[in-house]
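Internal tracking record. Fields below are filled automatically when a chain is submitted to the structure queue. Please do not edit lines marked as system-generated. If the sequence contains nonstandard residues, flag them in the REMARKS field before resubmitting.
Queue: standard
Priority: normal
Entity type: single polypeptide chain
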Amino acid sequence: MARLTVHVQPRARRTEGAGMHGDAVKIRLAAPPVDGAANEELVRFVAERLNVPRAAVRIAAGTGSRRKVVEVDGIGVDALRAALLEGART
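SYSTEM-GENERATED OUTPUT FOLLOWS
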C-alpha cells in the first residue's frame, strides 16, 4: 500500500497533475469542494491514472482540507507519485 500527500486545487479548468506543492503532489480538480464532489473526483482521477479499481483508493486524512493523504492498495509510493505527475504542467 502506498501513502502520498497531495494538495488539491478544486474548481480548476480540468483535472490534472500540476507538479509539486512543497512536499505534496499538487492536483487540480475540475469538481467544486461541495458535498464531497472534489474528494470523489480525486479518487476517480487516482484510480484512472493507476488503472486500479476505485475501491483500492482511499483518502486517509484531510477529507475537508486541501491537503490530503491518499492511500492506494497494490502499488508502491514511487509508482503512485510518477503516475500523478505524468504530463504535469507547472
